[in-house]
Amino acid sequence: MQPLYEGKAKRLYTTDDPNVLRMEYKDEATAFNAEKKAEFDNKGKLNKAITLAIYNMLEAKGVKTHLVSDVDEINLNVKIVDILQVEVIVRNIAAGSFCKRVGVEEGICFQQPIVEFSYKSDALGDPLINADYAREMGLATEEESAELKEKALVVNDVLIEFFQQCGMKLVDFKIEFGRTRDTGEIVLADEVSPDTCRLWDLETGKKMDKDRFRQDLGGVMESYAEVLERINKHV
Ligand code: UDP
User: Fold this and answer.
1) Residue 15 Cα, ligand 1 centroid: separation in angstroms?
2) How far is the CA of 182 from the centre of ligand 1 (A)?
3) What separation in angstroms does the CA of 130 have from each of 136, 143, 149, 181?
4) Domain definitions of the chain by residue range
5) What's the pLDDT tens digit per position in 13-24?
6) Contact 144, 177 (CB under 8 A)
C-alpha cells in the first residue's frame, strides 16, 4: 500500500474511515535538517509507544490530541487534521539551537518558559518566525498564534510534572497542531517522543533523547527504551 504522505520519521496511510489516517512510525532517524541520517532498530516501536502513552496521559488532563486508537506495534490511528505549518517549541532550559543562536551555555534554567515558532519548511530549514510572520504568511491568525502559545504552555506544564515523576527533566520540545475538519478545533498532532523532546535524567543529568544521536553519545535506543520503561511505570 502506497503511503499518502511520507515524512522523515513517519508515514501516513488512508484507512476505511475517511476521517481517520494510519500513522506509521519509522526506524529512520534524521538530525540537522536531515544532513545526518541513520536507522535504529525499534525506534518506530519505541516512539509509537511513548507518543501513545503521553497522548493518553495528556487527554486525561484535558489536552485534545489527534489520537483515535492504537493499531499495532508501529501504527496509531489518528484523526485527519490540517496541520498548521507552524512548529511550536517550548524551552525550559537552554540547549540546542537556542545556545547556538544567542551564545548561552547549555543547562541554564529559564525563570519562565520560552515559546518559539518556526516555519515548517524542510527546504528552508524550519526558520524561526514570530506571530507577525505567521499572520502575514497566512500560517495562523493572531488569535490562532495566541492559542498555539497558550496550548503549548499547558502541554509544557503537564509534561514537566509528568516527566519529573518519571525522573526526567523536560529541557525543551517541539509540537505541532492541526485543525480538525469537522469542528475546526486546534488539537495537538504529530508525535511527542525523545525525537522531539530533550530529556535529562533528574539525578545524573544524562541525556536520554535524540541528542545522543546528534552528538554521537551512543546508546540511543537504550535511552529511548529507558524513557518508555519509566513512562510505563507512571501511566
Ligand atoms: N525539534 C524537533 N524538530 C525540529 C526542530 C526541533 O523535534 O525540526 C525539537 C528538538 O528535538 C528539541 C526542541 O525541538 O527538543 C528544540 O530544538 P532546537 O531548536 O534546539 O533545535 P536543534 O538543536 O534540534 O537543531
Assistant:
1) 31
2) 31
3) 10, 13, 11, 25
4) 3-81, 82-232
5) 999 999 999 999
6) no
Distance between CA 109 and CA 48 in Å, rounded? 29
The whole-number pLDDT of residue 45 equals 98
Nearest CA, atom 25, ligand 1: 97
Contacts of 173 (CB under 8 A, 6+ apart): 89, 90, 156, 159, 192, 196, 197, 198
Q: What is the DSSP letter of 26?
A: P
Q: How far is the C-alpha of 106 from the C-alpha of 99, rounded, in Å?
A: 6
Cα–Cα dist 209/193, whole Å: 8
Query: Right CATH number for 82-232 from 3.40.50.11540, 3.30.470.20, 1.10.340.30, 3.30.230.10?
Result: 3.30.470.20
